[in-house]
Amino acid sequence: MVRSRARGAALAALLAVEKGVFLDGALRRADRLAGMDTRERALARRIVRGVLQTRGRLDWILTRVLTRGDPSELDPRTLSTLRIGLYQILFLSSVPSHAAVHETVRLARSVGGEPAARLANGVLRRVLREGVPAGIPSIEEDPVGHLAIEESFPRWLVARWVKRLGVERAAARLRAGNETPPLSLRVLREPDVDRVLASLRKEGAKVRRSALVPSVLLLPEGGNPSDLKCFSRGEVIVQDEGAALASLLAEPVEEDARILDLCAAPGGKILPLAQSLGVRGRAVALDRGIRRMERLEENVIRTKTGRLQLVVGDALALPIRGEPYSLLLVDTPCSGLGTLARRADLRWRVREEDIARLAALALRLLTAAARMVEKGGVLVYSTCTTEPEENEETVARFLERDRRFRREAPPLSFPEGALAPDGSLRVRPEELGCDGAFGVRLRRVE
């Protein structure tokens, strides 16, 4: 039997996530370890995302089938290996059960010796023999407990959404977070959309146009964008429909606009704007993270984006000098709770107390940004979260403090259901089928 490299690659990626590596970086690691076989790479990616999405339920099952101890007491490598095996036999129908058991036992032996191999064999065969244990509370008796296990989310987040949204809508949002998202590509120049679409189909990719954003193309089977010619040629960036809608709040821009993006990396908002500038236009992309700015620099080189200056710096400590800007973007660091389908690691990474902390940071960033907007200029604030403290409440606090700014409706048209009555962008994953997003366009009107 030819040994699969996918499980070992998936294990390495999951352990990297446990150590704090974000999912996209962990998946790139899995690609390298899985080798050049596209099927092995695809399987490794599927296992990593799947285990992260179902981890809560997998651990609930493990607490009932382990004869001794608690899952949290296991060696992290053994625990992740058990999760990989359980995920395959319960959720991955494309993998035969005997193959899942064989490969998981082999993987367990490589990381924990014979004791780990015997444990993996016993756990997986017991689940195959007896099925999933009973005992999940009913949604009528304990909606939070039921949804936390059934949909595999931390209990604090389920309780928060049930309280604010009600059981039915909270369940819909949780299910949306467990969908497998497509690979979403935004074509940087709208006239190129048809040509890029034809190029992808010529490569054999299954691709469709977004119904929400004309410049976005969706590949439902996912994959590594680096394998696509249009990506290598710099014609596209990876950007979800929700994020693309948020970036449209800043468009269209004048050719001679002066643009500053305070939280720019990896460039999803600033790159399309910079490409639309004329010779008199100017764009500055700032971010405090050196590694994030290195990714932005790679994207600038790949997309051949001119008239864009990159600056590593803290937006809260910038000296005010030179001309103010006609357009300023604040895509603030946030909890990211609108992106749970795409970033399955976030549900286990974010803590409830992070929301208030990030909301306070967002208000400070907005206040700092306001000082650099010229009279008549535009300030665009956006997030990729669904939480009101970071969204509506932050904007309301800012407008109470700074009376020079007023909300205004975006000039471009938006899909039905994306805009609130006050002109704010509010994308909800369970309604539009993409990442959640929030944004508002503010005009300095004094």
Give a description of the structure.
Strand 6, helix 13 and strand 7 form a beta-alpha-beta unit. This protein has four domains: 125 residues, N-utilizing Substance Protein B Homolog, Chain A (Orthogonal Bundle); 35 residues, no CATH class; 56 residues, Sun protein, domain 3 (Alpha-Beta Plaits, 2-Layer Sandwich); 204 residues, 3-Layer(aba) Sandwich (Rossmann fold), CATH 3.40.50.150. It is an alpha/beta fold. The strands form two sheets. Strands 5, 6, 7, 8, 9, 10, 11 and 12 form an eight-stranded mixed β-sheet that branches. Strands 2-3-1-4 form a four-stranded antiparallel β-sheet, covered by helices on one side. The longest helix is centred in the first third of the chain and has 34 residues. The protein has 17 helices and twelve strands. The N and C termini lie far apart (73 Å). The mean pLDDT is 94. Helix 1 runs antiparallel to helix 2 and helix 15 runs parallel beside helix 16.
Provide key terms for this protein.
alpha/beta, 17 helices, 48% helix, 4 domains, globular, N-utilizing Substance Protein B Homolog, Chain A, 8-stranded mixed sheet, 4-stranded antiparallel sheet
Order of helices and strands: HHHHHHHHEHEEHEHEHEHEEHHEHEEHE
Instruction: Give the CATH level 1 class of the largest domain.
Output: Alpha Beta
Work out the helicity level.
40-55%
Count of folded domains: 4
- What is the CATH fold-level name of the largest domain? Rossmann fold
Contiguous low-pLDDT stretches (5 residues minimum) are none
Global structural class: alpha/beta
Describe the largest sheet.
8 strands, mixed
Number of helices: 17
From the spread of the alpha carbons, the general shape counts as globular
Question: What proportion strand?
Answer: 5-15%
Find the count of extended strands (DSSP E, 2+ residues). 12
End-to-end Cα distance: 73 Å
| CATH H-tier superfamily of the largest domain | Vaccinia Virus protein VP39
Which architecture of the largest domain would the CATH scheme give at its second level? Answer: 3-Layer(aba) Sandwich
Average pLDDT, rounded to a whole number, is 94
Radius of gyration: 23 Å
